[in-house]
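hey so u asked for the seq, here:
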Amino acid sequence: MFGAFPQQVEASAREISKKDEVIDMEVMELLPQLRQLSRADKLYVMQFLVSELAQEQTDLIKPDLNYPVWSPYNAFEAANTMLQVLKATEPPTGDNDA
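ran it, structure tokens below
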């Protein structure tokens, strides 16, 4: 079931390398070594890489800097729009209960 997956990854890596010349030979050399790892070691490598990517994400927010954040506080125009939508969805009131 998963037998073709490593070959697909390797083929995709080669294709990207040929198109963009982004992938280094070191990465291409790692793929066969990664394939030989045990399942537990492969999961550890994945966990490590995901952790590294997450760390890069957190580095996007620098301490001691101000970042704008939208708040509904004092958003009167938005509140008015929501009120109009609510009023438009209310069933009509009337004496049609006869």
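Residues 63 and 90 are 47 Å apart (CA to CA). The mean pLDDT is 78.
lmk if thats what u needed
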